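Fill-in record for histidine kinase.
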Amino acid sequence: MLQLSSAPVRPSLLMPSLAAVVAIAIFVTDTVTPLDIAIAVLYVAVVLLAMDFAGRKGILFVAGGCAALTVLSYAITHEHDPASGPFLRCLISLVAIAITGALAARHQGTIESLREHASLLDLTHDTIFVRNQDDVITYWNRAATELYGWRPEQAIGRKAAELLNTEFPAPFDDIMSELKRTGRWEGELVHTARDGRRLVVASRWALQRDGRGRPGAILETNNDISDRRQVEDGLLRAQRELAHVARVATLGELTASIAHEVNQPLAAVVTNGEAGLRWLGRPVPDVGQARASVENMIKNGQRASEVVRRLRALSRKSDPSYAPVSLADVVNDVALLIGRELQGHRTTLGVSAAEGLPLVQGDRVQLQQVVMNLLMNGMQAMDGVSARPHRLVVEIARSAEEPQSIVLTVSDAGPGIDPASLGRLFEAFFTTRQDGMGMGLSISRSIVEAHGGRIWATNRPEGGARFHVSLPIAEERIA
Ligand code: ADP
């Protein structure tokens, strides 16, 4: 296979010397031996040998030299007679040399221009290499050498995935079948350079097909995004830590009502325990009543431990884990924790979820944080309202505009949002509350957007604000 390496070709004297020896041997044989055959035709071999070391002009020069030697040999050994056999043989040889020279020069010209095009690929900062269907590298540009540390002669002929220790985002066979289906593939890969550095690259593959549509070479272009990825990862970590701090701060605000949520079932456990003892302490123990008391104790104990479990999940600092989750369950989790707080603010909470809603793909704790922020905001917004009941309504339904999303809305009966603030609500540190931090909605937005969703606010015509969170459906499964 022709390999178009743009690397400089090292001149070797072997082939020019061989061509010279062959040319001299033909000249001597043609001049000295009285054979009646067109020996000079063999000069075409010299022209073909020249293809290995000479350029287009060089080949024409060698062909011209061979023609001159043919004529010289004829001039030395024969009288000029246009009708004679030797003259015709000389003519045939000259024609053969001329045709071979012209074809070889044209072929060499094509190769030279291809090599020139290939060398253009050395000018780009992008890493470019070509692999065949067996993943073997056939071309390797200068940027690839600079990034990975392997020179073309070290890389060409090696399997790309082995040489670069590639980590793929999906099984290699799946990527190859997508490439064969669409002719393209894009994604992020992790490569290991020669010196052991791990590199994150944005990779684009394009598949070349032959005349019959069969897959051939694969052109792979890679951009090193390791630095960008590091900054992004740092930003994401900082965002997560901030979200965690805000979550813990919110839980701090709720300490009194959460303590109540735990205390209430514990007090019920004690009361039921005492009642149970009394039923058993009767002259004729009432086992049925005692049993009912114990069952109540178990139920209340479970409720207390459920509150603690949710509390621990919310305060724990852990990486997000995305899984199909029911938004109705998320709302119930939060309602259990803030029920007492809502009561304290004379707020009632109504939750309505459409039947058979699909699940969304998300991190349960993060989504709880979003819902908690929205409910607390609505509750606080209604604090100064005395004209109408403090009612918070959560509705969960399939989105009318985006069929592949579920929308959760939280409506309150507060003063609504000042139209001048509508555009800034989700900015960090935007707050109109005296003791507010202005981080709740900004954190909620980053969480929702990291889930591939959207969050926005509107004012209700009948008064109050409505916050909408739209999240993509995980899969068509009934919640
Ligand atoms: P904070 O609650 O600390 O102020 P947020 O980011 O949660 O921070 O909210 C930012 C601002 O958005 C609030 O100060 C308030 O002006 C406005 N806001 C949020 N929710 C509501 C709501 N339900 N009704 C009216 N205004 C709201």
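KEY FINDING: Residues 257 and 340 are 5 Å apart (CA to CA).
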